[in-house]
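Appendix B, Record 12. Input sequence as logged:
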Amino acid sequence: MYSRILAAVNEHLNSEISARYALTLARAGGAKLYVCFVACADLPQRSIDRAEDAVKRLFIEAREAGIQVESITSCGSPVEEIGKIVRHEGISIVFASTRRQDIERRFYTGTVARSLLLTLPCSVAMVRVVHTGRVHPVKVLVPLKARINCVKERAYFTARMAQGFQSKVFVLHVPKKMTKFFHGEVHLTPAQWEKRVPADVAAFIEQMRKYGIDFESRLAPGATARSITIEAASKRHDLIIMGASERSLLASILKGNPVEDVLRETPCDLIILKPRHEDS
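Logged structural output:
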């Protein structure tokens, strides 16, 4: 599914760590890896040197891992230049990291990460790095809502990541609590909740079985973002993989944005996947 993977690198350490997730996916899926650095016009020379050193390290690491790899450096707007590369090289998915400033800005208006998610014609994996010491997740948490698009791509991405790191996957569905008029909240047993698993979640789980992935699944009714962060923290997960929000800006303002909340509060590394490969 992913034949060409691009990792966008800059002068910050978190971008190099994000690129190592891309490297692992390329190795697990037999894809070609592109390591890209775009220097803005006003970027100091010391920052350029740090980014170019990161590109060299990643290039050597990929070659030593037997991955077909190419490095690309250019100057200009990162969003525009990465878009050109994606279209010219036929990139399947782009990995980009968030910055500390991005986490502090609500809805990420004007940030590179948000712009890539919204504008690129390929899939995008936006990485929030929490632990900079190492990239080797043992326990991967995958929260799923009732209706999800591109089920096969989401499953492929998760399965390849799990295979690359030899991780165990924990599928978590967070349904809304049930209520009845005049009777308040309805409490269901785990078995009763299990019978209410949505079709898309069940399809994702079936794909995990087909890939032979070691996984567990469970339901945790409640507030979405809070349930995810509590689950990740209490069970000591190393990585969360979740889908990008499809809510409009107005809906996010009125109802909140669970993805944004998890991005800000996550206790471990987080990958927000914007899939573009429709199920066939």
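The two ends are 12 Å apart (CA to CA).
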